[in-house]
Amino acid sequence: MANILILKGFRALSEPIRLEILELLKSQELCVCELSNLLNIRQSKLSFHLKTLKDAGLLRSRQEGKWIYYSLNLSQLVDLEQYLAEYRRFNVVLPVRSN
């Protein structure tokens, strides 16, 4: 059975807004207020999505004063990529089985 973080990771990526969050965090870490402004969503709704991504191991956070900054957890993204890479071996065209 797949690792629970792998399952949580794919589930977390199923929401378009969460993919947008990852896109914004590709180049830099951002605080909740910056993400909220860039995505034009309420902080309460954003916090729910950030928690989901963090629980799936896809984000890291750090607190600086009253601000919480988020960044990508690249090692977990690599784990998801490697999990999918296992299926590339099935990309080979196999001969049709005869009855």
In short:
The chain has 5 helices and 3 strands. With 99 residues, the protein is of the alpha+beta class.
Shape: elongated
Q: What structural class do you assign from the helix and strand content?
A: alpha+beta
Q: Helix count?
A: 5
β-strand percent reads 5-15%
Q: Which residues form runs of ≥5 with pLDDT under 50? A: none
Mean pLDDT: 92
CATH superfamily: Winged helix-like DNA-binding domain superfamily/Winged helix DNA-binding domain
Report on the structure:
The protein has helices at 4-12, 16-25, 32-39, 43-55, 74-85, and strands at residues 30-31, 59-64, 67-72. The model has no long low-confidence stretch (mean pLDDT 92). Helix 1 runs antiparallel to helix 4. A three-stranded antiparallel sheet has the order 1-3-2. The protein is built from five helices and three strands. It has a single domain (12-83), classed as Winged helix-like DNA-binding domain superfamily/Winged helix DNA-binding domain (Arc Repressor Mutant, subunit A, Orthogonal Bundle), CATH 1.10.10.10. Helix content is 53%, strand content 14%. The protein has 99 residues and is of the alpha+beta class.
Please supply descriptive tags for the structure shown above:
99 residues; Arc Repressor Mutant, subunit A; three-stranded antiparallel sheet; 5 helices; 3 strands
